[in-house]
Design a protein that fits this description.
single chain; alpha/beta; 2 domains; 5 strands
Length: about 500
């Protein structure tokens, strides 16, 4: 099996490329493609690294396939990194290939073809972890500093990177003398701190939207739920796979002794974030949370017997194959057969957004400014139409970057077509017309508002948005805030 490593590697990448081409665009992908088309130093939801990467990968074309190449490149990076780590640890090259293959054929890798904000986080966390390991193994502080720089770039991707910093510092204090651990920790943080400070400065110029979105607005009224622990453990069994857990338990002593003998810090880089996420799961959890840390599990598999590793590769390949068959069947099922499905409307927008837009064009022409009532609808329709659909009124649970992209002052008096929303918008327009657009046996509500009343919209809806999403805590210094400066200038705000 390991003799055919390169062939298996190539086949898996080709399978991923195929699914990356045929899989319909998702809400988050369409949203981030819009952000990639508007490079910025700070996006509403997360720091800018994902938007920058999507911008670069989308240069060859606007099809989502090109942006998905970033995710596929990440998988290649990790697979090769696991193989190189195994060889550098002095293990049998065949075992290094098998550990790499276990990652390659896992659902964690094969099914990860879509764009996610976690992709940049995964890339730079992995690069940080690899640099950190070799910096410690070779006692090269330059590599530890480089690891800190990668960690800083991970901070510019997502705040979860903070868990990696904790794992690295725990590793230093566990494996080194305190004086040396303190010095290396300072070097590590020194590499990351310029990026953190830059992000804080950018945030002070952009309403602290990342902090508000990730720390405050999304964590209001969160309750402790012990069922979250059950979900957490179930997710670990799924990601590890039961057979891998079985063989890890079977060779537990060899793994423990091997990690201790080799000073294999990958174990702590995997375990510490996992334990912290297990604690957080009492409040909330998500499958994607673990993606950036799981690759560090695979360099700990070199201590399992070769025959057991081969079995894990086979079982995991079959397990992933079942997933691929299910996905393939779902993709070839005619959409109309699911018209009784609760989310049929959403499915139509995802799979046939181009057809929907053509129908809009045919019936209403280009006389109106297109809009959706949620970021998901607006994003997907923007992707399929090539025209930017704005978000009108409140259909999103949280604020989004559309707040920055759309300036409603410029729309005063204009006519707006709001897709898939039958809400009453009479107070925001001089005249409102309701219509329906039938696509594949589903009636989509269409609202045509003529003569947009900006002042009323600002006093009612935007004032509500300000109170709900832009109530910035006093301890955060605000140098500029596009939303408040645009709609509620300082001289109009209450003292």
């Amino acid at each position: 099996m390991e003799k055919h490593y390169s062939k298996i590697f190539l086949i898996i990448i080709l399978v991923k490329l195929f699914f990356a081409w045929i899989f319909p665009v998702t809400t988050d992908e369409a949203y981030w493609l819009i952000l990639g088309n508007h490079p910025d130093v700070n996006y509403y939801d997360h720091p800018p690294m994902s938007g920058w990467a999507i911008y670069l990968f989308s240069l060859p074309g606007g099809h989502v396939f090109f942006a998905r190449l970033y995710t596929i490149l990440y998988g290649i990076l990790v697979a090769l990194g696991i193989y190189v780590a195994g060889k550098k640890l002095g293990h049998d090259p065949d075992k290094a290939k098998l550990a790499s293959l276990i990652f390659l054929v896992s659902p964690l890798h094969v099914l990860f073809v879509l764009i996610a904000t976690d992709t940049s986080l995964c890339v730079f966390v992995f690069l940080a972890g690899i640099s950190f390991y070799f910096g410690n193994a070779r006692n090269k502080r330059s590599l530890i500093f480089l690891s800190g720089m990668f960690l800083g770039l991970a901070v510019l991707s997502k705040y979860f990177s903070g868990l990696m910093l904790i794992a690295m510092m725990v590793s230093l204090f566990v494996c080194r003398r305190w004086k040396q651990a303190i010095l290396d920790s300072i070097i590590l943080v020194s590499g990351a701190i310029p990026f953190v400070l830059l992000h804080l400065y950018w945030s002070s110029l952009n309403c602290w939207t990342n902090f508000m979105f990730n720390v405050i607005n999304r964590n209001q009224n969160i309750e402790t739920e012990y069922t979250g622990l059950v979900v957490f453990f179930a997710l670990q069994v799924y990601l590890c796979t039961p057979w891998l857990l079985y063989y890890m338990f079977q060779d537990y002593r060899q793994i423990r002794e091997g990690i201790k003998k080799d000073g294999n810090l990958f174990f702590l880089l995997f375990l510490v974030p996992l334990l912290l996420l297990g604690f957080v799961s009492l409040h909330h959890t998500g499958l994607h949370w673990y993606f950036s840390f799981y690759p560090f599990l695979f360099p700990c598999l070199f201590y399992i017997r070769t025959e057991s590793l081969r079995k894990v590769v086979k079982y995991s390949a079959l397990f992933t194959g079942v997933h691929l068959v299910i996905v393939a069947v779902a993709l070839v099922i005619p959409t109309e057969t699911l018209k009784g499905f609760k989310h049929y409307k959403t499915l139509l927008i995802y799979r046939h957004g181009d057809e929907i837009y053509q129908a809009i064009q045919k019936k209403y022409g280009d006389h109106y400014i297109p809009a959706g009532n949620s970021y998901s609808t607006a994003s997907v329709m923007t992707y399929y139409s090539g025209r930017e659909f704005m978000v009108f009124a409140g259909g999103s649970k949280y604020g989004r970057h559309f707040d920055k992209l759309n300036d409603f002052r410029e729309l005063d008096g204009k006519d707006i077509l709001i897709f898939a929303s039958g809400e009453d918008y009479h107070e925001y327009f001089d005249q409102v017309e309701q219509d329906t657009l039938t696509i594949r046996h589903h009636d989509f509500p269409i609202t045509i508002g003529k003569g947009f009343r900006y002042q009323r919209y600002r006093d009612v809806f935007l004032a509500w948005v300000r109170e709900k999403f832009y109530d910035i805590p006093d301890f955060l210094p605000v140098n500029r805030c596009f939303f408040l400066d645009r709609y509620f200038p300082a001289d109009e705000q209450e003292p």
